[in-house]
Design goal:
Number of helices: 13
Largest sheet: 8 strands, mixed
Helix content: 25-40%
Shape: globular
Structural class: alpha+beta
Radius of gyration: 21 Å
Amino acid sequence: MKFPCPRGDAYLDAMSSKRSLTSDVVIVGGGPAGAAVALALARRGLSPVVLESQSSPRLKVGECLPPSINPLLDHFGLAERLRRRGNLPSHGNQFVWGSGAIEERNFIFGTAGDGWRLDRQAFEEELIRAAVEAGARWYGGCRLVTCSREKRGRSNLTVKGPEGIETYQADFVVDATGRSAQVARSLGARRVIYDRLVGIASYFPASAGKDTDDSFTLVEAVASGWWYSSRLPDGKLIVVYMTDGDLLDHKGSIAVRTAEGWSALLNEAKYTCRRAAKYACALPTPPRILAAHTVRLTSVAGNGWLAVGDSAVAFDPLASHGISMAMGSGFHAASTIVDYLNGHHDALRVYERLIDRAFAHYLLMHHDAYSREQRWPHELFWHRRHAPVFQRTTNSVPKLFVAEGAR
């Protein structure tokens, strides 16, 4: 499916217009983080250019949002859009963590309302549509080749687009390329990789599911990692096995990549397996192995650029902060960019401190969450996560596990 462009609307105009080679702001990457920056900037009167490498939204895992994101969705005017596209409420979380019993946390006892079960493609389409309607210029199929910064203060970007090589100039560049942090790394930033977590994801078809009231996410710890599952708006069940990539060899990485091998591994998770059994009249889709490691940049901003979402910091999915962090950092990034373009260059330091504080809070929360599971202290997956969170360093970047470029 192509990016949405209903005939006659602003999206069609943006996609068919001649591309400008100059812009105040160029955003590289069109996922939730890039789209949130574009939407927020457009509402501030700018006309940012978004360069997205894919010609249409990719299939992604990450289909539930916590209630804490509701104020941000309301601010962007997205809540009603999501309801119209069939996205459904999530009423809470179930978890098997720290003991063999299943427990439940119902959102009804909170103050922010229900969470969301997303049609991820529809969610991203609505974000894109909102950004373009507000005035952003969106170009799909544009893959970044190089990015460099001139001494006089502008950035040059070379892009391979549908019609060949193009060059863009911008006063400010936003890295929204995800964990690869392609722009930031080309400008001298380095990544710190904290673990080896991967997710092996598969879907059970909707036609097999019979429990239409199944609106909770389920997280279940096992000796070698943990399982996540959620029923999606279209009735499918998404099931993901989370473990460290180097531990897959112990499970037989080739077998795990097949529906049969993955299903056999699922038998180790009592409650997740019981949930999936309701869909058992058909095999799940072939599993996909996806990056899920915690990673951050040594610097998330510099002269004329900043990073948002997973480009700046990418969290363990257990935190349920991925999309929230993407959109929240995009919101704050837009204010930072406006201030910077108005001559307040110290705004970049404020943004950096904001990201640093959020990441420090995440590290402590992450360590606390994993420390609650003590049933398998000698299993390598859990032993790694029970280690001290970080060591203090002079530049405030934690010294952990894996350096730039290692796996």
